[in-house]
Amino acid sequence: MLFFIITITIVILDRFSKSMAVKKLNDKTVYFMKQKIQLFVIENRGVAFSLLTGKVKMIIKVSLILLLAMIIYLILLIQNEGQSLLKMGISFMIGGGFSNLVDRILYEGVIDYIYINFKKCPVFNFADIFILIGSLMILISALI
């Protein structure tokens, strides 16, 4: 149950942050740390680094399949004790992936709004952060 609460919390946090970004940043850019961090809204119609731009229906289908597979795997894992880091990582990825999927269904793209001005870093959102952290948790759990 804990892992599904974590997933739902991530979805709520990301949905709220995207809503606030759209509402408050409306055609504005906000700068932090001498312009190293910038907040502005863009719509990414692809996946990471704008790959597969314009392939929204395919991205939605693949996302649904991957999310379903992760949910089933998490349900199977929860039945056994241990592997908390793996379970947490999968929960993070489901939460981030689901929230981005909602964007794709509603807007045919994902709302991104955080930019770190460093070595061609892409614009991203909280869901992307949780997907990255979840991936790292899964990797670490495989190594320990």
From TrEMBL:
Q: Which GO terms describe its molecular function?
A: aspartic-type endopeptidase activity
Sorted alphabetically, the keyword list is:
Aspartyl protease, Cell membrane, Hydrolase, Membrane, Protease, Transmembrane, Transmembrane helix
Per UniProt, what is the membrane topology?
Answer: Multi-pass membrane protein
| InterPro entries linked to this entry | Peptidase_A8 (IPR001872)
Active site annotation, chain numbering: D112, D128
Give me the segments passing through the membrane.
58-78, 122-143
| Known function | This protein specifically catalyzes the removal of signal peptides from prolipoproteins.
Write out the similarity annotation: Belongs to the peptidase A8 family.
Q: What is this protein called?
A: Lipoprotein signal peptidase
Native organism: Clostridium brassicae
- Taxonomic path: Bacteria, Bacillati, Bacillota, Clostridia, Eubacteriales
Which gene carries the instructions for this protein?
lspA
